[in-house]
């Protein structure tokens, strides 16, 4: 494997680990809200942000908070924990240069690209361009690494 490719894969591993830790922190935050008055918490957040509580988006937030039950919070947290574990496992595999992690990274990146492209064309922004480009680069890098691995194995057996 080329040194730059090795470094790029390590960078993707760090990115995936960061995403995993970030989502794990969000799951912990969700779990900390269990058995809390979410409607009052949303109202305090709106007040603290100096938003008009009668305007559209703050009302949506308060309404959503009033409907959110403890079981939904726990289910959201469990989903976030599962997602986080997948990201952390992928990061470990990429760091250790495992082929299964490269496949997982390519597939998980490619699955979002049509949605990102749709969002980009629907409402263009530099942020969406950058996200699409980074995701495309990750998919290309993983496919390139897998192809390189396959060719090296073929040379070894030939």
Can you offer a commentary on this structure?
The chain is mainly α. The protein folds into two domains: 11-97; 98-158. The chain contains six helices and no strands. The protein has helices spanning 3-32, 38-48, 56-67, 70-95, 99-122, 126-157.
Keywords:
mainly alpha; 2 domains; 6 helices
Topology (elements, then pairings):
Layout: H1 3-32, H2 38-48, H3 56-67, H4 70-95, H5 99-122, H6 126-157
Helix pairs in contact: 1-4, 1-6, 2-3, 4-5, 5-6
Main sheet makeup: none
Q: Unreliable runs, pLDDT <50, ≥5 residues?
A: none
How many beta-strand elements?
Answer: 0
Give the fraction of residues assigned to helices: over 70%
Oligomeric description of these chains: single chain
Outline? elongated
**N-to-C span:** 19 Å
Q: Can you write the helix and strand succession as a string? A: HHHHHH
Radius of gyration: 21 Å
Q: By helix and strand content, what is the structural category?
A: mainly alpha
Number of discrete domains: 2
Count of alpha/pi helices:
6
Q: Could you tell me the mean pLDDT?
A: 89
Relative strand content = under 5%
Task: Write a compact overview of the structure shown.
By secondary structure, the chain is mainly α. It has 6 helices and no strands. The chain has 2 domains: 11-97; 98-158.
């Amino acid at each position: 494997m080329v040194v730059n490719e090795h470094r790029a894969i390590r960078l993707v591993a760090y990115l995936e680990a960061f995403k995993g830790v970030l989502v794990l922190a969000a799951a912990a935050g969700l779990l900390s809200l269990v058995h809390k008055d979410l409607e009052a918490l949303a109202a305090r957040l709106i007040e603290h942000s100096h938003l008009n509580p009668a305007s559209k988006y703050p009302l949506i937030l308060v309404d959503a908070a009033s409907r959110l039950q403890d079981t939904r919070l726990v289910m959201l947290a469990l989903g976030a924990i599962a997602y986080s574990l997948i990201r952390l496992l992928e990061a470990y595999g990429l760091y250790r240069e495992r082929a299964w992690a490269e496949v997982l990274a390519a597939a998980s990146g490619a699955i979002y690209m049509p949605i990102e492209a749709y969002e980009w064309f629907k409402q263009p922004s530099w942020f969406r361009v950058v996200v699409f480009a980074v995701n495309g680069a990750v998919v290309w890098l993983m496919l390139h690494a897998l192809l390189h691995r396959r060719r090296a194995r073929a040379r070894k057996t030939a």
